[in-house]
């Protein structure tokens, strides 16, 4: 992290609640809450509604803590990148020290309360997830290797495992399959974003694959990871968390996703610039729907199974 005090920013007095809430990356929190809930519901045994609600709340707080710590550390490059320049710290609404204090306090609170409301294994996984995102990814991987988003994707993949552990007190193959879905989805999702964000990562000197290996190589990587993701996603249909609803959803989505990755692979930069990166932007939007619908299908199977339907 560089000294952001050298950046031309002026703090604008007292921040609002919305500014502090934005530190917690609410959009990311939504994904964390949803996948953790799916992991909890997909588990073979039920959870007391009060315990379940409290656990999801503390997992969400832990995700918010990770976001605040990430924004504190990345304030210097957030100031440079157009996509992140309006975040609370680079825009001058929140001071870096405040973000650090909030992140540390919420980290401790979320882990402690999850241990009390659920179990120690779930709390330990949440603590590791916060550490992985704030330290391993943000402070180390993000600025040191083009594999940053590949390895760092693990941080976003833990929530369904934590949800499963809240319900069962243990881990299983099914929990790690949900982890793998997010883990394998993350690289093509962010590489597509990097393709059409153009100079953001170059300007901030973040070694994304587009910067270190070029855009042609990035297009090849998107296709390769998508092929692996398709095999994993469709194969999951034939496990205990799958079923006909999930299989139908997975087949449709993965045909579309694979076609999108193929279209990205066969394009060059001249074609992409000519239509304003329309294919890459479309693939990125589809990737958001892709993950939501896969986990939505897993949740539907779990709810039907609890009523004597669903599954195989």
UniProtKB/TrEMBL annotation:
EC numbers for this chain: 2.5.1.141
Function recorded in the entry: Converts heme B (protoheme IX) to heme O by substitution of the vinyl group on carbon 2 of heme B porphyrin ring with a hydroxyethyl farnesyl side group.
Protein name: Protoheme IX farnesyltransferase
GO annotation, cellular component aspect: plasma membrane
Subunit structure: Interacts with CtaA.
Associated pathway: Porphyrin-containing compound metabolism; heme O biosynthesis; heme O from protoheme: step 1/1
Transmembrane segments: 28-47, 53-73, 120-137, 149-169, 175-196, 222-238, 244-262, 283-304
Membrane topology, record value: Multi-pass membrane protein
PROSITE patterns found in the cross-reference section: UBIA
Alphabetical UniProt keywords: Cell membrane, Heme biosynthesis, Membrane, Transferase, Transmembrane, Transmembrane helix
Alphabetical list of InterPro entries matching this protein: Protohaem_IX_farnesylTrfase, UbiA_prenyltransferase, UbiA_prenylTrfase_CS, UbiA_sf
Taxonomic placement: Bacteria, Pseudomonadati, Pseudomonadota, Alphaproteobacteria, Rhodobacterales
CDD domains membership: PT_UbiA_Cox10
Sample GO molecular function, one term: protoheme IX farnesyltransferase activity
Organism listed in the record: Pseudosulfitobacter pseudonitzschiae
UniProt similarity note: Belongs to the UbiA prenyltransferase family. Protoheme IX farnesyltransferase subfamily.
NCBIfam families: cyoE_ctaB, PRK04375.1-2
Locations listed in the record: Cell membrane
């Amino acid at each position: 992290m560089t000294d952001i005090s050298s950046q031309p920013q002026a703090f604008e007095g007292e921040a609002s609640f919305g500014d502090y809430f934005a530190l917690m990356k609410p959009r990311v929190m939504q994904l964390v809450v949803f996948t953790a809930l799916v992991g909890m519901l997909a588990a073979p045994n039920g959870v007391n509604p009060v315990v379940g609600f409290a656990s999801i709340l503390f997992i969400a707080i832990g995700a918010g803590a990770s976001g605040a710590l990430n924004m504190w550390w990345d304030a210097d490059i957030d100031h440079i990148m157009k996509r992140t320049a309006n975040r609370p710290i680079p825009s001058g609404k929140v001071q870096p020290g405040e973000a650090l204090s909030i992140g540390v306090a919420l980290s401790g609170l979320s882990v402690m309360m999850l241990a009390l409301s659920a179990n120690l294994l779930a709390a330990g996984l949440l603590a590791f997830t916060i550490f992985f995102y704030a330290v391993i990814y943000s402070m180390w991987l993000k600025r040191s290797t083009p594999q940053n988003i590949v390895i760092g994707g693990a941080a976003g993949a833990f929530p369904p495992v934590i949800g499963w552990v809240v319900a069962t007190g243990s881990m299983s193959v099914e929990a790690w399959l949900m982890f793998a879905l997010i883990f394998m989805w993350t690289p093509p999702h962010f590489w597509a974003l990097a393709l059409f964000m153009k100079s953001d990562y170059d300007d901030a000197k973040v070694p994304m694959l587009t910067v270190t290996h070029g855009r042609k190589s990035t297009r090849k990587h998107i296709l390769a990871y998508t092929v692996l993701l398709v095999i994993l996603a469709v194969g999951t249909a034939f496990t205990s968390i799958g079923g006909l609803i999930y299989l139908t959803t997975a087949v449709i989505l993965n045909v579309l996703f694979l076609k999108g990755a193929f279209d990205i692979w066969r394009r060059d930069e001249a074609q992409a610039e000519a239509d304003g990166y329309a294919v890459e932007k479309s693939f990125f939007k589809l990737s958001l729907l892709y993950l939501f619908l896969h986990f939505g299908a897993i949740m539907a199977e779990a709810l039907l199974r609890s009523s004597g339907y669903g599954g195989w």
